[in-house]
Specification:
The complex is a heterodimer of chains A (107) and B (121). In chain A, the strands form two sheets. In chain A, strands 2-10-9-4-5-6 form a six-stranded mixed β-sheet, with no helix packed on it. A four-stranded antiparallel β-sheet of chain A has the order 1-3-8-7, with no helix packed on it. Chain A has 107 residues and is mainly β. Chain A is globular, with a radius of gyration of 13 Å. Chain B is an all-beta fold. Chain B contains no helices and eleven strands. The chains are: A mainly beta (107), B mainly beta (121).
Chain lengths: 107, 121
């Protein structure tokens, strides 16, 4: 099975900061990677798919990059609504493994 | 409006069975794969199972393979998860999610609000 590792697990940042979250796959997944945002008590929301494609309606301050085994999610200028937990997910195989999550907290 | 509504959760004893349902609306259900994802209290997301548009391709997490069975009824716009031999570690909020395409190799672009399963004696 493909294992996904996110870093950091927790990130403290201020409004306006540029934030980067990394996700590593245990083997190559080409570009078959998605990023989701989850707020407490809510369902996850798709942000990015196919590593760098922005889902409709998602602000352009969110961007994704990478291929193979290393991927990043970048928030260009952190906004108050962005404090949440972020998950990467691979869908290269029949098992859609998630990373363990990165919680973005207010500094 | 695209909508997914899960039901069937509840309190069940270890070793017993439970069947979850997901009612879909607002899109052409039989054009998309569907998935179940769960989240244990205070924990991260865990993909549980997926099914292609035509039910030919099925996928399961190692943790549920052999105990859970995913199915769909395209005529009823519904997704199901039959859970048997339930364990305490299956306690979680179970989400239904729409795939981004017909097959399992797609992201999940719409999520329901979830149904809670509690396995306890």
């Amino acid at each position: 099975d493909i294992h996904m590792t996110q870093s950091p697990s927790t990130l403290s940042a201020s409004v306006g900061d540029r934030v980067t979250i990394t996700c590593r796959a245990s083997q190559s997944i080409s570009s078959w990677l998605a990023w989701y945002q989850q707020k407490p008590g809510k369902a996850p929301k798709l942000l990015i798919y196919k590593a760098s494609s922005l889902e409709g309606g998602v602000p352009s301050r969110f961007s994704g990059s990478g291929s193979g085994t290393e991927f990043t999610l970048t928030i260009g200028s952190l906004q108050p609504d962005d404090f949440a937990t972020y998950y990467c997910q691979q869908y290269n195989s029949y098992s859609g493994t998630f990373g363990q999550g990165t919680k973005v907290e207010i500094k | 409006e695209v909508q997914l509504v899960e039901s069937g959760g509840g309190l069940v004893q270890p070793g017993r069975s439970l069947r979850l349902s997901c009612a879909a609306s607002g899109f052409t259900f039989d054009d998309y794969a569907m998935h179940w994802v769960r989240q244990a209290p205070g924990k991260g997301l865990e993909w549980v199972s997926g099914i292609s548009w035509n039910s030919v391709s099925l996928g399961y997490a190692d943790s549920v393979r052999g105990r859970f069975t995913v199915s769909r009824d395209n005529a009823k716009n519904s997704l199901y998860l039959q859970m048997s031999s339930l364990r305490t570690e299956d306690t979680a909020l179970y989400y239904c999610a729409k795939g981004g395409g017909r097959y399992l190799y797609f992201h999940m672009d719409v999520w329901g609000k979830g149904t809670t399963v509690t396995v306890s004696s």
